[in-house]
Every structure is written in C-alpha cells, then in structure tokens.
Amino acid sequence: MLDKIHLMVQGGRGGKGCDSLYRRKDHKTIPNGADGGDGGNVIFRASHNAPGLDRLKLKQHLIAESGEHGGSENKRGRKGEDLIVLVPLGTSLYRRENHMAIRDLCHEGEEVIVARGGRGGVGNSGDREATPGEEGEFFEIDVEFRIMADVFLVGLPGSGKSSLLHHLTRAHVEGKDYPFATRAPVIGVYAYDDYKQILFCELPSLYEGSTEGRGLGTDFLRHLARAKLVVFMLDATMKFSKTAVEGLNTLQRIIYEHDTSFRQIPSVVVLNKIDQGDDLGKMQEALQGTGQFYFLISVTTGEGVESLMNFIKERIEGESHA
C-alpha cells in the first residue's frame, strides 16, 4: 500500500485579454476587447470513494484547465475548470520545500485549494491596455496518507493480531500461524449496540531487526499518528522474546524511537495464547511491574476477550466525549 507520494500541482493559466477595435459607421473606432477567464484551481478533496494514492503516482504533474481568451464584442473568456483530486480520508498535504503543512483532510467532503489558477488578462474595452493572463500557482507537494482508525494492534510476530482482528470484526484476514503473515495494514470494523462502531487496524509485526530494515521495516508506523489507543500484543509462548516484559520493551522502544510523540497515545498490553503458555502467574507478576493496563486472553478459546473489549469500548467512548 502506497502511503506517501510526491506531486507537482499547477493552477490553470489565465486567459489572454482581447485587443479588439470596433469601427462605427462614423469611422470612429471603439475598443471592445473582453477580459480573459481565470485559470482553474487544483483542489484536493477527501472522499470515502477515493482510490489509493497509487493512482496518483501514474500522473505526478497535475494541471488545472486554463481560462479561455477574451473575445471581441466584450465577450469575456470562460473560467477554466477546477481540477478536483479525490484522496482518502486521513490524507495530509505538505509543501515539499519546507514540509509546511497545508491541510489534513480527515472528514468526508473536506477540501483545500492547493494551487490557485492565474487571473485572466485585461481586455482593451474602456480604453485599457490589453494584458496576457497570469500563470497559475505551481507547487511541489508531499501527499501522505495515515489510516483513520481508533485502535491499532501492534505486536511481535505470531502474537495473534490477525486472529484477534478477525474474531472481533470478521475482517478478511487469514490468521496464519507463521511470522510476518501480515504484509500491510489491515482494517476491520467492530460493531456493537446496534449502531456504534470501533475501527481497528492491524499493523505488520515488529521485532528486534525491524529498525534495521529486516522483516517489513518500520515505515508503516506513521499510521499510528491518528491512533486513539495502541494495543501491544504479546504471546505466552514467548517465541520472539525471552519474557513478556522484554517483548513489551522491544515494541515500545521501536515505536517511540520512530516518533517520540507516540508516547502520548494511550496503550494497553495484551498477552495472548494463555491456553498454551506456562507459568502464567510469573508473567502476570512481571506485567504488573510495568505499571501498564494489561489483559490475559486466548483468542482461540475466547477467554478474556470480552473483558478486553469492555475496556476498549470505555476508552474509545471516553475519547469521543472528551
């Protein structure tokens, strides 16, 4: 999934003002050239129906329509059509030269003019001097997409993130029992109380080598910027860490080194596969020492999942009413 792209955007050029003279029957000449039309704007609009950023990569120079030239007999040129660029909700736009933010587009129909069209030229009507139209604005921009989800599942390989996501949301994921089965972020919707929803996102697995580019790296962690809650998933079989606390420390170190602001995101620890683990009392005692909220669950048997979801619902509903 492509989540960052570089584009060149340009507003349409303004139409040329007309330099025209009308000769009356008494041989007197009257200027009657009209103004040119303004160029179209380049507008980015958030839409649920927008395709991914992959499509924009096929045409990286976006130019709005130019305004029409002014005509004689005071016929003003038509304004150029605006170029509407649909992007997914959660898209952020930045000026490339200084990475200054232009706008976050997070709501359906929200839009921003990124490059304005040039003004149309002045016609010679009224004894003015005819002028050419102005060039439209030109900018290089970075377009970044971050998933709009409430809860992000972050975990060690084989911790059962896919199984939990499928159990809660019936998302079309395969809970394959091998590391790095998830190759890209996966979204699922947990529905409850008839109309309420919580959006879950499972991120690919992290482990010690992730920061060195092994596995799937860490670039996908950018999506955490919009998280309301992070669920750190560990598994009681300890295949990728010596202890539960060591696994938790690994996940937190990788995430917080990627972006220190992620420390401010509320989090909870989930120890999965308790039906397969040994010495759960020792693991529980160690997790208590971290000072974090934690839950012991088994996605396979369903044990502890309801308690976890009650906690998550309370946290997310609290955020919504804050």
Layout of strands and helices, then pairs:
Layout: E1 4-10, E2 21-23, E3 29-31, E4 42-46, E5 61-63, E6 83-87, E7 91-95, E8 101-105, E9 111-115, E10 138-145, E11 151-155, H1 161-169, E12 186-192, E13 196-202, E14 229-235, H2 244-258, E15 267-272, H3 280-288, E16 294-296, H4 305-320
Parallel strand pairs: 1-5, 4-6, 11-13, 11-14, 14-15, 15-16
Antiparallel strand pairs: 1-10, 2-3, 4-9, 7-8, 7-10, 12-13
Structure report:
The chain has helices at 161-169, 244-258, 280-288, 305-320; strands at 4-10, 21-23, 29-31, 42-46, 61-63, 83-87, 91-95, 101-105, 111-115, 138-145, 151-155, 186-192, 196-202, 229-235, 267-272, 294-296. With 322 residues, the protein is α/β, with parallel strands linked by helices. It folds into 2 domains: 4-145, Spo0b-associated Gtp-binding Protein, Chain: A (Distorted Sandwich), CATH 2.70.210.12; 151-320, P-loop containing nucleotide triphosphate hydrolases (Rossmann fold), CATH 3.40.50. A 6-stranded mixed sheet has the order 12-13-11-14-15-16, with helices on both faces. The two termini are 32 Å apart. The mean pLDDT is 90.
